[in-house]
């Protein structure tokens, strides 16, 4: 966080995404989930938050491999937003995410926290929502 404070970004973009990480044998907290490469393998499916401007990881939400993309995403995203806003209070926070995150809970979190976001809609385009409210 200290490095981000030194950069003094006016606008900060947080990217949210998940990635299947297969394991060998039995690993605590893993479960059989969807994997195109290793069908039937136990895996983890963590959510990542990275900072687009620097490419660095900001936070991770560890999950077993048998959960839906958006499982736990709302709370994880809110935690990331709150951490950034508390440490960089003047920065405009944006978010990018794929269509798995595009649901009522996530949209509500974005609107309530005055977040700008871009969502890949799965049809070759993006949806950009600017819900900045007058203060």
Explained architecture:
The longest helix has 15 residues, at 73-87. The strands form 2 sheets. This protein has a 6-stranded mixed β-sheet with strand order 6-5-1-7-8-9, with helices on one face. A 3-stranded antiparallel β-sheet has the order 2-4-3, with no helix packed on it. The model is unreliable at 122-135 (pLDDT under 50). The relative contact order is 0.18. It is an alpha+beta fold and 135 residues long. Helix content is 22%, strand content 30%. It has 3 helices and 9 strands.
How is this structure best summarized?
With 135 residues, this protein is α+β, with helices and mostly antiparallel strands. Helices cover 22% and strands 30% of the residues.
Keyphrases for this structure?
single chain; 135 residues; alpha+beta; 3-stranded antiparallel sheet; 30% strand; disordered C terminus
């Amino acid at each position: 966080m200290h490095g981000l404070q030194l950069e003094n970004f006016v606008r900060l973009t947080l990217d949210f995404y998940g990635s299947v990480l297969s394991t060998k044998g039995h690993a605590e907290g893993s479960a059989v989930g969807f994997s195109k490469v290793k069908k039937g393998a136990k895996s983890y499916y963590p959510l990542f938050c990275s900072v687009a401007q620097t490419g660095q990881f900001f936070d991770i939400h560890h999950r077993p491999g048998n959960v839906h993309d958006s499982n736990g995403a709302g709370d994880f995203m809110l935690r990331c937003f709150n951490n950034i806003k508390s440490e960089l209070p003047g920065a405009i926070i944006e978010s990018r995410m794929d269509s798995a995150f595009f649901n009522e809970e996530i949209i509500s979190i974005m609107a309530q926290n005055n977040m700008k976001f871009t969502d890949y809609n799965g049809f070759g385009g993006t949806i950009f929502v600017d819900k900045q409210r007058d203060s």
